[in-house]
Design goal:
Strand order of the largest sheet: 6-7-8-3-9-10
CATH superfamily: P-loop containing nucleotide triphosphate hydrolases
Structural class: alpha/beta
CATH architecture: 3-Layer(aba) Sandwich
Largest sheet: 6 strands, mixed
CATH topology: Rossmann fold
Number of strands: 10
Radius of gyration: 17 Å
Strand content: 25-35%
Length: 224
């Protein structure tokens, strides 16, 4: 489902910096893979390459059978809209929309706003335990509830891929454990593939497969 083949990313400047060097990665469909690493090793860069938000200087990135380097910016935008869901550390829930309206956003962007779309939103809210919060505003939610809203939004349009960037970074340990467990459960239920980048070993331990990214490269390591 996700394949990177000898990918290199160099940040330009007076002193160009190689962030990823000939990195290869193959993640099968239906799996939650964790990329574990410290700040600055290139985890977010890797996620941005998979999302088509950044382009590699060398190598190829293929997602859901599509070679991203062969798409122009408009095609990449459309690809992300249809095929990818995002979960962020800072939630990125819009404060002036209700919980249900936030979850419905990906469907609205795809022009889906009829009864089937509303039914799908309600189903996702129930799946993440927020059915009774549908009409609530984000300011009325806890951090864990905000991240559950983000998970429902990421999966509502049935994407092939969900990318999660430090999704537990703003949560207490109990909420973090609940959120990662829920993310894994919903990914499996929806048949989607997930990539979680994190510096938290506890979060990575909930994944199906664990890789460690360092300045020396990427390796599948698992956790003790």
């Amino acid at each position: 489902m996700i394949r990177l083949d000898h990918v290199t990313r160099i940040f330009p400047g007076p002193r160009p910096r190689t962030v990823l060097d000939r990195l290869s990665l193959d993640i099968p469909a239906g799996m939650l893979a964790a990329i574990l690493g410290e700040s600055g090793v290139g985890k977010s860069t890797l996620l941005n390459l998979i999302a088509g938000l950044d382009r590699a200087d060398a190598g190829t990135v293929s997602v859901a059978g599509v070679a991203l380097d062969g798409l122009d910016d408009d095609a990449l935008t459309e690809f992300r809209r249809e095929k990818i869901g995002f979960v962020f550390q800072a939630f990125h829930v819009l404060p002036y929309l209700t919980v249900a309206q936030n979850v419905a956003l990906p469907l609205a962007l795809l022009g889906r706003d009829g009864p089937d779309a509303r039914e799908r939103v309600n189903a996702m809210l129930a799946a993440v335990g927020l059915a009774e919060r549908a009409a609530s505003m984000p300011r009325e939610l806890s951090g864990g509830e905000l991240q559950r809203t983000a998970i429902a939004r990421a999966l509502v349009h049935r994407p092939a891929i969900v990318l999660a960037d430090e999704p537990t970074g703003n949560l207490d340990p109990d909420s973090a454990s609940t959120v990662i467990g829920l993310l894994r459960e919903r990914l499996h239920a929806e048949g989607a593939t997930g990539v979680l980048v994190t510096h938290s070993r506890a979060a990575a331990a909930r994944a199906d497969r664990v890789y460690t990214l360092t300045a020396a490269g990427l390796a599948e390591t698992g956790l003790p």
